[in-house]
Each structure stands twice: as C-alpha cells, then as structure tokens.
Amino acid sequence: MTPKPTTAAGAQAPSARDLRTATLDAAARLLATAGPDGLTIRKIAAAAGCSTITVYHYFQNKQGLLDAVYVEGHTRLSEAQRRQQFTDDPEADVRNTCLVYRDIALANRYYFHVMFGQLDSVHRPTGDTRATGRENFARFIEVVRRWGERTPLRTDPESAAHALWACGHGMVALELTDNAPHSAAAHRYRTAIDLMMTGLRT
C-alpha cells in the first residue's frame, strides 16, 4: 500500500477530498458571516488552510465554488434523509425525514444559509445546480404518497409534503437565526411535526 504524502513536519498531508471539503466549509462560513462581499478566493484559501491555486483547481472560479457549496449542502441533507425513508413503516418514514432535517440543519448551519438564504442576483447558484434540492423534495413527496396509501390524507401528497417541509424549515430557520425559544427546541420541533401529521390525516 502506498503511504500518504506527509508534510515537512511529518504529519500526513490532507487528501484531495479533505481539501475540497475544507474549502467548501470555509466558503459556506464566509458567505454566511461576511456576506457576498466578504467571499474572496484569498480569504477562502486562508480559512481552508490551502493556496488560492488549490481553490481554483477544484472550482475554477467563485461562482463554481458557490454552486459546489449549494450542491454539497443539499447532498448532505439528501443522504441523511435517504437513510430514514422507504422502510416498512411509511408514517415513520415521513416523521423521521422531517426530524433529520433539523439535525442536518443544525450541523450545517452555514450551508443552509447558502441553500435557502436571500442571496443577491450575482451570488445565486446557476444552471442545474438546484436540481439536487428539487430531487430531494420530489423524493419526499413519494414518501408522503406511500404514507397516504395506508392513511388517507386530507389533501394530495404534494400539498401535504409542502406543508410538512415548510413547517419544519420555518422552525429550523427561526432556530438558526436565534429567533426561537432556546429551551426544549428538539421537543417543540417534534411536537410541531406530529401536530402537522395529525392534522393531515382525514
């Protein structure tokens, strides 16, 4: 087995994957805390502990980096939610998909700013970048549809999925922006999802 390259101090050099992730993390954090004007390749490289050449190598330019941050955030959310879906208990699938949304949002708060924040027209994801988010929501509609096949719902699966997603996202957004009560946040979130699901049943 070929050993990993080491730094001058003898520590293992970061892998390409580690460098890419560190760069994405730094970009998300800078965009969320400093705004679009604070998002420069030089600052990103310094925060990620790499060279500007490395940033350009992986992402070509600032827009490419922004698109990659958006996709990475939605990919992390999608992968976590996939693990909760399409089991033998469709109702639990719906609930758990909603619950894990909050977990991923809290663990990736800077990414969520890019995914759902009010960015200016110059710093918006481009092209098919938004496809990851659309695909994730489309899969959630299917999860809700399976639930509705066992438990008749008051509305169609797409409307029910939108209501649940909006409820969960709204509560998460308030929590991330420190506009929600600090105590028992997880319990309040779970209670809101349960109330929504109860209301959606006929």
UniProtKB/TrEMBL annotation:
UniProt GO MF annotations: DNA-binding transcription factor activity; transcription cis-regulatory region binding
InterPro entries for the chain: Homeodomain-like_sf, HTH-type_TetR-like_transc_reg, HTH_TetR, MT1864/Rv1816-like_C, Tet_transcr_reg_TetR-rel_C_sf
One Pfam family this sequence matches: TetR_C_33
DNA-binding region extent: 40-59
Domain HTH tetR-type: 17-77
Superkingdom of the organism of origin: Bacteria
Keyword Transmembrane: no
Keywords: DNA-binding, Transcription, Transcription regulation
SUPFAM superfamilies tied to this protein: Homeodomain-like (SSF46689), Tetracyclin repressor-like, C-terminal domain (SSF48498)
Name this polypeptide is given: TetR/AcrR family transcriptional regulator
Species, as recorded: Amycolatopsis carbonis
